[in-house]
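Structure tokens please, single chain.
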Amino acid sequence: MAMDRYVITGKQRLEGTIRVSGAKNSSLPLLAATLLAEGSSALLEIPQLADITHMIEVLEHLGCKVVRQNEALLINAGALGSCDVDEGLMRRMRASNLILGPLLARYGRVKISRPGGCAIGSRPMDQHIKGLQQLGVKVKEKHGYIEAWTDKLLGADVYLDVPSVGATENIMMAAVLAKGITLIRNAAREPEIVDLQLFLNKMGAKVRGAGMDVLKIDGVESLHPTEHTVIPDRIEAGTHMIAAVMTEGDVLIKNVVPEHLEPVIAKLRQSGAIITLMDEAIRVQQRGRISGVDLKTMPYPGFPTDMHPQFMAMLSCAEGTSIITETIFENRFQHVDELRRMGAQITVEGRTAVIRGVETLEGAFVEATDLRAGAALFLAALAAEEATVLEKVDYIDRGYENLEEKYSHIGAKVVRV
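Here you go.
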């Protein structure tokens, strides 16, 4: 199957309004959470992305009925036919492991193959499994499958060695129907966890503390379906902010929660961008050359690893030398060679990249190696002299909805071939 490519003519100043879609990384756990209640839940602002389509396929495979109606996705998790998910479905994305918690909570058993997904580093399941075992789940792993079952989930005091987002979500979803109180210590603090707490509580759960490092979950007998609007995608919003800066543009980004972007806003201001915050919008203006900055990725509320490649694209044409230290994923430097083809001067030493800014990037033939690397090359192309051909844009489709449409509206010259 031949993948699409973008042909991008750079040096076009971006100006106008762009709207952010719902958050992919919030939509996936919310979709999984609908398994917790019998009946039909409605989720609004769920983006139309490849990963979402895969998650819907997993739900349908389990026996859910899923329909898109206008703006809403209706998921009916009435009677499930199966608690096994085959390898083909699991292989395509790692987030499909988020059905573990809900299925154990509702049916007491589940069998999945080890999930696949993006190639940016190992994403071990051990935190998920250890946490669920503490709630009374028995787990058997063999031949690449994970089989888990329980007679009764019991609340427990769970400590995560690292604040894993997926593990926090899975344990939360299992604990809402467990007997007694569960504490998750060293929990992930991402806005997506807060969104999941909101949704679960609307379903009748008793979850407190999302956004802090200790979550308290008081188990309830059963949950009911509900309606919920997913939060905006903070990584998409951050990507648009950088696009405005790299094209010396003036862009109003709508449907954002500025608080979710604090580290990104701080670094962009440090590099000389003019940023105006509103209730649900951010205006980004840039005049003249960008200044280099140093950054280090950290779990939320630190600087997001999912924004590191886009920042590297920006710093490639900033003044002076910048340093990026990656502490989350070990192979997050796959975009470096491609940016070098466009004239970037980057050296990587272990988990640190040193970027010497150049006057301007040059168009080239490049290819996306993963979702955020694709976004970084897209941004580099917007700022480059002449035309860039960006191959394998299907990676970009995993996290950005209607990218060429959104960008054409604000003055970019992007053609999808």
